[in-house]
Amino acid sequence: MDLSDLKKAIESIIFIADQPVSVDKLSLAFPNFERAQIRKCLKDLVQEWEDLDRGFLLSEIAGGFQFRTDPKYSEDISNYNKKIKKFRLSRAALEVIAIIAYKQPVTRVEIESIRGVDSSGVINVLLERRVIEIKGRKEVIGKPFLYGTTSEFLEVFGLKSLNDLPTLKEIDEISQNLEPNITPIEENNETAL
Question: Residue 119 and residue 182: Cα distance in Å, rounded?
Fold first, then answer.
């Protein structure tokens, strides 16, 4: 098998995979090729799909590679297929997921001390949606659960890794550019995402 065939084989594997495919998994599938060769094929494939300017892209996401629809067509896709529900988060859910993403692993009590309100309902919904998971228990009295984000979190938010989260400085810059009269979404329904 030459590099051209390797690239086609990698593309086929990514196409049929139901989760992002990592370089590690591809290395196991192609033991006769070096990781650098596999990475080169992936880089070439990402660029080729971008150059095609089609309705879907090959994206590096959640520690692997996955075909994804072009975000600019998401509304059209939703209009066509009413069964597809947009992943919406309430303000409370966004607050909790942000705390978990930046402070993980973190306990419910630690989340609630930052937010100032009970967060158990929101945590349960985020667990059901599989964007967070229990990472273990904290070694203190009561041994509370420690929560962290999942690879589904990275997929939903289009991140390669947690390192792609905006820094506090970037968040400050974004918030300074927001219109001052934006009214927040009501928080009455904490379990609605």
Answer: 24
Q: Give me 87's structure tokens.
A: 């992943």
Which CATH number is associated with domain 3-72?
Answer: 1.10.10.10
Which top CATH class is 91-177?
mainly alpha
- DSSP at 141: T
Side chain identity at residue 28, one-letter code:
L
pTM score of the predicted model: 0.58
Q: What is the pLDDT of residues 127-142, one digit of tens each?
A: 988 899 999 999 999 8
Burial of 86 (0-12, 13-18, 19+ CB in 10 A): exposed
In the chain, CATH 1.10.10.10 sits at 3-72, 91-177
H or E stretch including 59? strand 56-61
